[in-house]
Amino acid sequence: MGIDIKGFHIEPTNICTLKCPRCARTEFINKFPSRWKNKQLNLEDFKKFIDIDISNKVFNLCGNYGDPIYYNQLFEMILWLKQNGASVVINTNGSYKTQNWWKELCSIIDFNDGIVFAIDGTTENFTNYRVNADWDSIAIGIQEAVKYTNTTWKFIPFAFNEHEIEKAKKLSTNLGIQSFHVEPSHRWESSDDLLKPKNLVNQKSEHVINWVKYTDKDFIIDAQCKKTHVEHYISAEGYYMPCCFVGDHRFYFSSEFYKNKEKYDIRNSTITSILENLTDFYSSIEDNKLKYCTFNCPKI
After folding, report:
1. Strands 150-155 and 240-241, how do they pair?
2. Does residue 1 lie within any of the structural domains?
3. 14, 25 in Cβ contact below 8 A?
4. Is the pLDDT of residue 287 over 70?
5. What's the pLDDT band for 217 if we cut at 50, 70, 90?
6. Is residue 2 part of a domain?
7. Residues 6+ apart with CB under 8 A from 237
8. Is 277 within the bounds of a domain?
9. 3-state SS of 22-81?
10. Residue-wise over 129-162: b if at least 16 C-beta within 10 A, else e?
11. CATH code at 116?
């Protein structure tokens, strides 16, 4: 099976300054505090692992657990990617970096790249979810970024902010941000979750709430990894997975990618050799109905 990779999802670090209550990082630390370790992706291992032509491919720097702006070699990684013809999209809350830091970042990216600022609400209430976030430093980042790259304000609706979407959108326009994206969450523990919005219920959210009630055989898989090939994931620990959902601790430790993780260790392999061994995975994904697939990629 020939795979035409169009993009990657890279988690450069699992470090973050925030404590968002539905974040996998927060949930893991709360449940298993003694098992948590901060990680930074080894850049040299990463460069050796990517043994393909990456020109015109998109590298989405985003975390299951961390915020990429806290990666200790972020500028070096971006420079290498750009020098090899790739583009980057940085997903961040944007807190606690200085103007000089943002100026340096913006000197190595351009309008072929992008920064997505995750700000769920208005300046008065977004910290209800983005706990520990800092608006003043975020505003500095936005002020610099809009001059040099594509920017997006990503807004997750919650019970406390769903009535202020238009207000946040107006603010984003006033700040010069090019796009405003409402992205409903599916991280609801139950229908009566206090954070769950009342007016923006979506099919994916309802699927997740009902997921535990049904057996895996009840689901039809709509495998996005086979359709797009933009989410080939590398964790901050340095392991490959076909998508970031596999890396969620709710699924990862029972998956073949953990049980046989030596095969997927980027220090021991390359992306080319790993893809050669994933033929069976992709050809049987709809029949196997793995838990991370039924949870994240049901046909709705």
Report:
1. unpaired
2. no
3. yes
4. yes
5. low
6. no
7. 14, 39, 41
8. yes
9. CCHHHHHHHHCHHHCCCCECCHHHHHHHCCCCCCCCEEEECCCCCCHHHCCCHHHHHHHH
10. bbeebbbebbebbbebbbebbbbbbbbbbbebbb
11. 3.20.20.70
Report how far residue 286's alpha carbon sits from residue 284's, in angstroms, rounded to the nearest whole number: 6
DSSP string, the chain: ------EEEE--B---S---TT-HHHHHHHH-GGG----B--HHHHHHH--S--TT-EEEE--SS--GGG-TTHHHHHHHHHHTT-EEEEEE--TT--HHHHHHHHTS--TTSEEEEE--S-TTTGGGTSTT--HHHHHHHHHHHTTTSEEEEEE---TTTGGGHHHHHHHHHHTT-SEEEE------SSTT-TTS-SS---HHHHHHHHHTTS-GGG--B--HHHHH---EEE-TTSBEESSGGGGSHHHHTTSHHHHTGGGGBTTT--HHHHHHT-HHHHHTHHHH--HHHHHH-B--
Q: How confident is the model at residue 1 (pLDDT cuts 50, 70, 90)?
A: very low
Residue 60 inside a domain? The answer is yes
Number of domains the chain is built from:
1
| Cα-based distances in Å from 192 to 19, 148, 196, 198, 209 | 22, 43, 7, 10, 10
Residues 41-51: tens digit of each pLDDT: 999 999 999 99
Which residue's structure tokens are 């406390």? 160
Amino acid type, 181: H
Say whether pTM exceeds 0.90.
yes
**pLDDT band per the 50, 70, 90 thresholds, residue 212:** low
pLDDT tier for residue 121 given thresholds of 50, 70 and 90? very high
User: Which residues lie closer than 8 Å to 194 by C-beta, 6 or more apart?
Assistant: 159
Structural domain harbouring 40: 7-296
